[in-house]
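F.,

This is the one I mentioned.
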């Protein structure tokens, strides 16, 4: 059994008690990363509680040989997709996939993840190139893509709310020079 599998097995009961799930476990160099999540999102308090509990369990059972740094984190807006379950959960989302075919090099494609089965994923390509079936054996890396919304038109007008005020403007609106306990003189040019 791999170290990451041992760590996952130890962490899953802790996650269940906390009402969260173990999204992923990775080991890269001297870092052991345990990624936790919850339906609807996970809070910083949840991550802090999980960190304390997971650290305690790992100290008790010592499944990782040598020294390491434990990192407990959320998956973030752009989630790495490493397991078939990750891909299934991301169906309907925009994903970026780096494909590596032996002897042919690598390429990156982006599109909407349409289907997932035991052997491959199907993407509706963002470039309008139709659908593409990609075997899991050719997926080098994949992640979801967070879309920020419509791109503003170049040269368009900014809304009044998006105008950035000059830092000194806040001082100009302040009637009291003694509000912060200092009688500093402000010079404007």
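My design for it:
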């Amino acid at each position: 059994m791999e170290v990451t599998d041992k760590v996952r097995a130890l962490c899953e009961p802790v996650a269940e008690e906390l009402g969260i799930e173990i999204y992923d476990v990775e080991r890269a160099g001297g870092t052991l990363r345990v990624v936790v999540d919850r339906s609807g999102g996970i809070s910083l308090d949840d991550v802090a509680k999980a960190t304390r509990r997971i650290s305690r369990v790992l100290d008790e059972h010592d499944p990782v040989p040598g020294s390491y740094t434990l990192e407990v984190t959320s998956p973030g807006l752009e989630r790495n997709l490493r397991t078939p379950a990750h891909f299934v959960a991301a169906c309907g989302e925009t994903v970026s996939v780096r494909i590596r075919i032996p002897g042919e090099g690598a390429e990156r494609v982006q599109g909407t993840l349409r289907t997932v089965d035991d052997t491959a994923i199907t993407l509706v390509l963002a470039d309008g190139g139709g659908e593409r079936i990609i075997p899991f054996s050719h997926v080098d890396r994949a992640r979801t893509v967070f879309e920020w919304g419509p791109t503003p038109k170049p040269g368009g007008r900014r809304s009044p709310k998006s105008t950035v005020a000059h830092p000194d403007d806040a001082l100009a609106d302040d009637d009291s020079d003694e509000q912060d306990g200092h009688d500093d003189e402000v010079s404007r040019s």
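The longest strand covers residues 105-116.

Talk soon.
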